[in-house]
Fold this sequence. Notes:
Two copies of one chain form a homodimer. By secondary structure, chain A is an alpha/beta fold. In chain A, 41% of the residues lie in helices and 19% in strands. Chain A has a six-stranded parallel β-sheet, with helices on both faces. In chain A, strands 1-3-2 form a three-stranded antiparallel β-sheet. In chain A, helix 5 links the parallel strand 4 and strand 5. The interface between A and B is large, with 59 and 58 residues.
Amino acid sequence: MKKTDIPDIVIGRLPLYLRALQRMSQEGRQVTSSQELGELLGISAAQIRKDLSQFGEFGKQGTGYNIEYLLEQLLKILNLDHIWDMVIVGAGDVGHALARYQGFRNRGFQVTMIFDNDPDKIGKKIGNFTVLDVAEMVERIREAEVRVAMVATPASHAQEVTDKLVEAGVKAILNYAPIRVTAPPDVQLQYIDPATHLQRMSYYLK
Amino acid sequence: MKKTDIPDIVIGRLPLYLRALQRMSQEGRQVTSSQELGELLGISAAQIRKDLSQFGEFGKQGTGYNIEYLLEQLLKILNLDHIWDMVIVGAGDVGHALARYQGFRNRGFQVTMIFDNDPDKIGKKIGNFTVLDVAEMVERIREAEVRVAMVATPASHAQEVTDKLVEAGVKAILNYAPIRVTAPPDVQLQYIDPATHLQRMSYYLK
């Protein structure tokens, strides 16, 4: 099945299934069901069965899903059967927190470089990383063939940084700057903006 | 119109419209169109018109939307015509970054307290905040009548903290711990987990 055949909204739910299954696996569990996954995730069991059926036959009627097997298959589908190197652009508070975050590696990603344009930050240590000059970014990313980046710059720099990342060959960008950026169609873009989540919730507050 | 009549997915797009309009307003712009908003946001113009029409008549055929008027209406709809106080639970790297983030206030929220359970962190300063003992959390939140919280604890503490926040009267929780939590139906929950965004993108990588 071609990658473009499956709706992106389905792809977006697979990491949630993966996360739930990894937790069950850590707890020593061996079998689960679409019902149980659904209750854990607030997604209907029918939706989960339909999503997974797009990729093959993972469960047997009545016996549920083998957790390890489904985990392994989801890791393959999501190209997570190896660790992706990743760079961070922006060594402010968010960049700091991302560089020190311990939760990426066991989910398929590792930070390998962090860049900034501030002479006061370049050369400083963040955990095991030395902040690199953004002027060297394109060359360094090309050399290391990194394909994944997180942008944690001010909004005013996000597009310019995105353009440079694309030039360097990056194909997946997680943007923490509170602004939409544009990139060619073969580059994946995702956004994290806590204020939009807060505003979505305040609608329901009295 | 009752709040429950409008699909949550529509509500979820309103903050994106708001953000784009605020940027246009900052740039001194006065009028926009569903076409322009759509191109900026990667959403179809028809979808934007349909979403906005659920709340009233904001634009005139052929003349587009008055930016200031639409902004004002969206702020009212999203209950953002005043600033919401907000607490942070967890004074680790993510809690730190959130406490120091300057981008909440002009989008309707301000951090007023940060809590942790680590004796080494309690009493320490983060920017203008002193980290408070989570043991006092329920009482302090009740006293201050705070309704919004961000949880930046390890996954293992997220449910327990959520329960305490609910007990204290919090009605909207943005959870940074990489785990689903449960709360009563009158409590809004949103999640931020960068690894799920990265995994969604790695599906498309070669």
